[in-house]
TrEMBL record:
Belongs to the thiamine-phosphate synthase family. Its EC number is 2.5.1.3. Keywords: Magnesium, Metal-binding, Thiamine biosynthesis, Transferase. PANTHER family: THIAMINE-PHOSPHATE PYROPHOSPHORYLASE (PTHR20857), THIAMINE-PHOSPHATE SYNTHASE (PTHR20857:SF15). Condenses 4-methyl-5-(beta-hydroxyethyl)thiazole monophosphate (THZ-P) and 2-methyl-4-amino-5-hydroxymethyl pyrimidine pyrophosphate (HMP-PP) to form thiamine monophosphate (TMP). Pathway: Cofactor biosynthesis; thiamine diphosphate biosynthesis; thiamine phosphate from 4-amino-2-methyl-5-diphosphomethylpyrimidine and 4-methyl-5-(2-phosphoethyl)-thiazole: step 1/1. This is Thiamine-phosphate synthase. 4-amino-2-methyl-5-(diphosphooxymethyl)pyrimidine binds at Q53, L54, R55, D56, K57, N85, S124, K153. GO terms for cellular component: cytoplasm. GO terms for biological process: thiamine biosynthetic process; thiamine diphosphate biosynthetic process. CDD domains: TMP_TenI, Ubl_ThiS. It comes from the Bacteria.
Length: 295
């Protein structure tokens, strides 16, 4: 097991806010005329959405503020992060958990300067060079898409499952596959290596928002394997098969209880008070770094 590393020097950061997630749901009010945004998003949360984004290209600043405040209260009740698309100043004003930015939006560096290290920054990517740059620049997650053609972004050329495979093989920060994902094609996306998916129309445009969210979220979770089954994970760079269900069980398995430890899971530092609740899934990469000699 690797012992000690200079975690300042390697650009690692404490990120308590972005817990592992499976189903990321983005608002899309044009898909549910006559129904309130908070009503529809609450159904998505009931179905298992574990991260929510407010994306709204048409509202006035006042309307946007009202929607952001409503969603902030809603997501707090469900204990999931709220991300604001594009508008960093709004994210700061409502104390959202983070912001999502595209290649044409505010730069990652400027966003990080404004938001600080504890808030989430997601970056859209459409090619591996963009994914590498986002990872290197300290993004907390990346969007990978559009995987399929989508009416939510008409006319945008799909990146296809090839790009999903490329990112799954190379990029270590969490990524979320997005664009045209539905119950009918989600298994292909997962098969290509996605561990998290994101959807707008398939969920908020569904006649059964909760049921569709549940179906998608269960598909993603079950593709990661049962928490009770042996899991193939990578511990400090070494492939291991483990039965530990949670981070604290894994720590116990290595006899490291009570040691001064830093735990990094898929690029995030897991705070000690979350070790017991943080589940392990096949495919995760974990670093257990213990300090020796008073380091
Ligand atoms: C999770 C996620 N991924 C990608 C996007 C798209 O962001 P962007 O490229 O800036 O395009 P707009 O959404 O602003 O039209 C996203 N919003 N969320
Ligand atoms: C908002 C957005 N961004 C994308 C990207 O690839 O960056 S694809 C997309 C639309 C996602 O909506 P739907 O689930 O309805 O296809
Ligand atoms: Mg944008």
């Amino acid at each position: 097991m690797r012992g000690l590393f200079d975690f300042e020097g390697e650009g690692r950061r404490a990120m308590g806010k972005l817990n592992d997630f499976s189903l990321y749901v983005i608002t899309g009010e044009n898909y549910h005329p006559g129904r309130a945004i908070s009503e529809v998003m609450e159904e998505a949360l009931q179905g298992g959405a574990d991260i929510v984004q407010l994306r709204d290209k048409t509202s006035s600043p006042q309307e946007l503020l009202r929607k952001a405040q409503e969603l902030k209260a809603l997501t707090r009740r469900y204990g999931v992060p709220l991300i604001i698309n594009d508008h960093i100043e709004l994210a700061i004003e409502v104390e959202a958990d983070g912001v999502h930015l595209g290649q044409e939006d505010l730069s990652l560096q400027e966003a990080r300067r404004l938001l600080g290290s504890s808030r989430i920054i997601g970056i859209s990517t459409h090619a591996i060079e963009e994914a590498r740059a986002a990872e290197l620049g300290g993004a907390d997650y990346i969007g990978v898409g559009p995987v399929y053609p989508t009416g939510t972004k008409p006319g945008v050329k799909p990146v296809t499952l090839d790009y999903v495979r490329q990112v799954a093989a190379e990029i270590t920060i969490p990524f979320v596959a997005i664009g045209g994902i539905t119950p009918g094609n989600v298994d292909d996306v997962l098969e290509a290596g996605a561990k998290r998916i994101c959807a707008v129309s398939a969920i908020v445009g569904s006649s059964d928002v909760k049921g569709t969210a549940r179906l998608l979220s269960e598909r993603v979770r079950s593709s990661r394997g049962s928490v009770y089954a042996p899991k193939e994970i990578v511990v400090n760079g070494r492939p291991e098969t483990v039965t530990a269900r949670t981070v604290d069980q894994l720590i116990a398995r290595y006899g490291l209880q009570g040691r001064k430890l830093v735990v990094e899971l898929d690029g995030y530092i897991v705070p000690q008070d979350e070790w017991a609740a943080t589940q392990l899934f096949s495919g995760v990469k974990i670093e257990l770094v213990h300090f020796v000699g008073g380091g």
